[in-house]
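ENTRY TYPE: paired fold submission
RECORD: A
CONTENT: sequence, then C-alpha cells
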Amino acid sequence: MPTLWSQTLIPTLRQDPADAEVPSHRLMLRAGLIRQLGSGLYTYLPLGWRAMHKTIEIVREEMNAAGAAEVLMPALEPIELFADTKRDVEYGENLFRLTDRHGRHAALAPTHEEIITELMAAYVESYRQLPLNLYQIQTKYRDEFRPRFGVLRSREFIMKDAYSFDLTVEGLDTSYRAMYDAYCRIFDRCGLTYEIVEAESGPIGGSASHEFMVLCNTGEDTILKSDKGNYAANIDKCAIGPRKWTFDAPPTGDLEKVHTPDCASIEAVGKFMKVKPKHLLKTLIYSTDNGPVIAVVRGDHDVNEGKLKAACGFAVTLDDEACANRYPIGFVGPHLAAARDELNIVVDCDAAQDQFWASGANEIDHHVKHFNWKRDVLDHIDESRIKVADIRKAADGDPSPIGDGGVLREHRGIEVGHVFKLGTKYSDAMGFTVLDEDQKRRSVIMGCYGIGLGRIVAAAIEIGHDADGIIWPASIAPYSVHIVPIKYEGELCKTCLSLAEQLEAAGMDVLIDDRPERPGVKFNDADLIGCPIRLTIGEKGLAQNSVEFKRRADGKAKAELVKLDQVVRRCQEALDI
C-alpha cells in the first residue's frame, strides 16, 4: 500500500534551525527525518526511520551473506565485565554509569567486546567450533562532552558491530578480508563514495586496521591521500616518505641562553625570541617500560604517539606532572640527554636539518639559540642513545610514503565503518581459551568490525544535497517515488492510486502527497525530502494521457512527459531495478 502524506508524520520546516552546523543536520531536521529531544538525543521520525531501516537491511543482507550470524546483546553491561580489560578506566567520563536499586553498578555499553567475549567463553571450548563471526544491530551510548553535527556525533546511536573468532592469525586474516569485502559491498549498495584508509594497527601488527571514510568538507576526521591516488591514511596512522637529515651540520653560532619569562607555548616563545616555529625544537619527555625518552619534533609539528611507540618498541606515556619533579617541563632541550644518562632520544627527520635551531635551555623560563646536534648532543653521548625516525603527524604537502614522488594532500572525512584486528587483547584479559588439535589451551584471536548506521544516512545527505534539499541514493531513500497531484480529487486521485499500485507491484515504494496545499508548497517539500523520482499529476497532463516525470538528481531540469502506460518502465530504468 502506498503511504499518504496525511496519514504519516512529515513535519517539514521552511527555515534552517539555528543550532544546526552541517548540511545533514540541517536537512534531517528540515525534512522531518529527526527531532531533537535533548543534547545528542534524537527521535527518528517516519521518513528518517524508513531510510535507516533500508540501510539496516542492506547491512544485514551483506553480513549474512558473508557468513556472520546475528545476535542481540544487552545494552546494559555489568561493571564487573570491565574488571580485567580496564576499559571503564580508558573510557573515563565518556562511559554512562548507573546503579540499580540493589546497589549493583552497570554501564550503558559503548561497544560490546566484553559482552561478546563472555558469551563466547561460555559456549566455545574447542577449535572445532571455530571460526565464528557474530554480529548485532544495537543502540550504543557514549556520554560525549560536546555532542554535535546531529546524528554524526550523538550520545545515543545505532551501530552494527561484528566480532570474529579464530584460532590462528591466518584465520583472522581470512575473517578480516571477508568483512572488508562485505563493507565495500555495503557502502557501494548505499550509494556512498568512500575512501578506505589505513588506521591504527592492532596488536598483531601489519596493516591491521582500516577505516571507511566518506570524503566531505564537513567531516570531523582528517585523512591524507597521495595525489597519485595510491595511498591514503588517517592522520593518526599516516606515514611520511623519506626525508633527508643530518647531525653533521656546522653550528650557526655559539650557544646563547635567552631569558623567556611567561612563554608557555611554542608561539609565545617564537614571538618573544623572533624565531619562526619551524626553527624551534619541540622537546617532550615520555615514560616507557624501558625508561624515559626524549621525543623531538620541529616546533610547527606534533608528535604522533603511535609512531613514537613503534620507534621505541614500547608503549609511551606523556605525563608532564610526574616528569616535572625531575625535569624542567616546558623548557627542555635535546641537550638535556648529555647531562642525564637515563634519557634516550628519538628525533623526527625534520628536526635534524642543517639550519638555525632554537630550543629549551633545560632551565625554567629560558631557551637557547644556535643549538647544534653534533656539538651539543652527539659529542657527549653514545650514538646508541639517539635514533632518527618518522615520529610526527603527517601534514598537507608531505611526501607520500610510497616513494614515487607523490605528495600527501589533506581531506576531511566522515568515518562510516572500521574493521580492526583485536588479536588476543580481550580473550587474554578475560581468559577465553579453547583446546587446539593437541589438546592444549590457546587464546582465541579476535577481530571487530563496526558500522555507524546513522552515519551512513547522514553521510549520504552530506554528499547528496543541493540548495533545495536532499538528493537520496535510490537504495536508502525513504520512498522510491513521490507522487504529487495538483489536486487530490476525482480523476487525479484515481490515477494516483492506480499508478501507486502498479509501481509498488513492480517493487517500488510510493508516497502520495494528498494534502490540500498549493502546488508550490508541495513541490518545495518534494525537493526538500528528496525522493529519487517525482511524478506530477495534473489535468493538463492527463488530457494527454501523461504525467510529468522528474528525477530529483536532475535539479532544475525540466520535467518530461511520460505516457501512463510507460511510467512504471521509466521509473524502473531511472532506479536501475
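RECORD: B
CONTENT: sequence, then C-alpha cells
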Amino acid sequence: MREGKGSRAHLQRRLEIRARHLAATALLALVPAGAALLAPGALAKTGGAKPLPTSASCPDLSVYPSPDTKTASPTTQISFRNVASGVIEGAGVTVTGSRSGTHAGRWVADSDHRGASFYPAQPFQAGETVSVTGPLRICGAGADSYHFQVARQPGPLATAPAASATPTPALDQPTVTYASQPGVQVPILKIKKASSLGGDYIFEAPKGGTKLGGPMILNSKGQEVWFEPLPPEVSASDVTVQTYDGQPALTWWKGIIVNGHGIGSDLIMNSGYQVVATVNAGNGYQADLHEFRLSSDGTTAWITAYNTVGWNLKSEGGPGDGAVLDGIVQEIDVATGNVLFEWHSLDHVAPALSYVAYSDTSAYDYFHVNSIEPLGAGLVLISSRNTHAVYALDQATGQIEWRLGGKRSSFAMGAGANFALQHDAEMHGSSTISIFDDEDVNGNNQPARVIVDHLDYQARTATLERAYGHGSLVVPAQGNGQLLPDGDVFVGWGSGIYTSEYSRSGKLLFDATFGSSVNSYRAYLLKWKGEPATPPALALGRRSGQLVAYASWNGSTETRSWELLGGSSATSLEPLGTARASGFQTALRVTGAPAMVEVVAEGANGQALGSSAVVSTAGL
C-alpha cells in the first residue's frame, strides 16, 4: 500500500532522498563549468504516454550492469549515464575482477553526449565479482565504488525426451505464386469479414508450416503489397512502422527461434526497403524476437534478450547449479551500439513467482519478457508472460515501482481485470493499460482476450473497462492488441491465426486468417508509403494463346496503373496499352508482335514512377 504522509516509512524515505541529493555534490566537483550533470529525468523518452506516479529521481549517475547485478555477461561493457560527455572518461575509473584482476579498456561516448561506456579489453570470468571504483556517486550504491557479479555457468541438463513418432498432419496453408515473382509462394491472408480498414495497411510476419515466411505488408483485401521471403530456418517478427532519422521506417526482427525466444538482429528499413541501420543486443547477447521499439526520436532502441545462466533452483525442484533463462531488457544507442540501460529479471523477480513448473530438459524459462514500453517520468513498463505480471521499473535504478497481476500484485484485481500468459502491455495515458490476455494456462482452453484496465493509484485497484474476444478462440502464445486513434481495436491473435478489427463497443469489423498452420507474432494496422529502390518486375507468358506481360513492383503503395511499351528494339519502344493496377500483379495483353517490351509503373496522376528492364519476346 502507499505510504501515508505522516508515517515513519514516509519520513525515512524522505530522509534517504535528501541524503542522496547531498551526496551528489561530490560528483559536481568533477564537472567543468558549462558541463553540469543532466537534470534527473532528462533521459526519459515519453513515447506519447503521460507521466505516471513514480519515486523521486536519483540525481547520481546510473550505471549498467546495475549495482549488485548477479548475472552480468563476461563480455559486458560498463555503461555510465546522466553525466556530461567527457567527464566520466577522465574521472579515473578503475575496473577490477576478483579473479581476472584490473582491466584496461577503451571508452566510447554515447551519441547524445550524456554518458559513455567502458569496454574492457579482456572478458571477465564466470562467477567473479567486479568492482568499479572512482570519485563517483552512483544510483543504488552511493559510495565511490560499486560491485556486480558475472553470471555463473549453468549445470548440465537432462536429455530431452525423444520426439514423438506421430505423423505430421496435413497443413492448411494457402499460398499464391506470381509469374513476376518466380519461385516464391506467398502466404494468403484469407478475408472472412471485409473492411476498407480506412485505407491503412496490415503489417504481419507469417511463419510456420512448410512454406517460406517473412515480413509482409498487405492491403485490406488481403493482397500482398510487400513480402520478403526468408529461408526456412529464418523467421521475422514484430514488423511495424516507427520513426528513424525523422522519417517513417519499417522495422522488424530477423533471426532463428529456439524454445520460444529469438537469436538475431533488429533491422531498420527506409521507404525504399533498404536496410539503413541494424541494431544488435549489447554485452554479447543476441536480440530477441519479442520487442524492438525505437525511442520517439529514433536514436535509441529498446529490445529484449535472453541468457542461460547458472542458478540455485532447489526451491523450484531443480539442482543447485540449475540452468535458468535470465530475461534481459536493454536500451541501445543505435549510432554506437552502447548499452544505455540494462535490466536482469533474476535481480528483481525470483523464480518462485513463476507459474511455469521447472523442467530439467531445458533452461528454466521462469520469466519470459515479451514487451517493453518506456513511459517517461523515469519509468519503463515490461510484461512477463510466465509470472502473469506487468512491471513498472525505475529506469535509474532498475527497481520495481509497482506490479500488476501475478503473485504479488500492487493492485487489487477487479472482476475480469486479471490475466495470464499475457503479451503486449501498453499504457494509454496515465491510468489505462491494454493487455493481450492469452489465458490458456496449462492447456485449460480458456479463450483469449484483449483487455483494457483502469488503474487507480490511490486505491491501488485495477478495474476492467472493456474486453475483446474472438468467440471461443484459444491462443496458447503470442498476440497483440492495438488501440487505434479512432477508438477501434486491431488485434493480432498470435498462434490463434486470426487478424481482426473491432469497434470500441466490440463489433467485429474485419476478420482474416492465414490458415491453420501459419501464425504471426503481432499484427498492426498502420499508414505507409512504400517507394521501392528496386525497379518493377516484368515477366512474359501466354494465356489462351495470347502473349501477356505480368507486371509487379514489390513494396509499391503508389502504383495506380501500368503502361506497356513495345518495339523492334530497346531504343524504339512505343506505347501498346495501359491497365489499372490490380492487386500485387497486373496482366497486360501484348498486341502486335514486338521484339522487346517494357512496363512503366504510373502514379495517381499518370506520372511515371519506375520502369522495368526491357525483356525480349523471343521464344514466346
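NOTES ON RECORD B: The longest strand covers residues 247-258. The chain has a mean pLDDT of 89.
STATUS: closed
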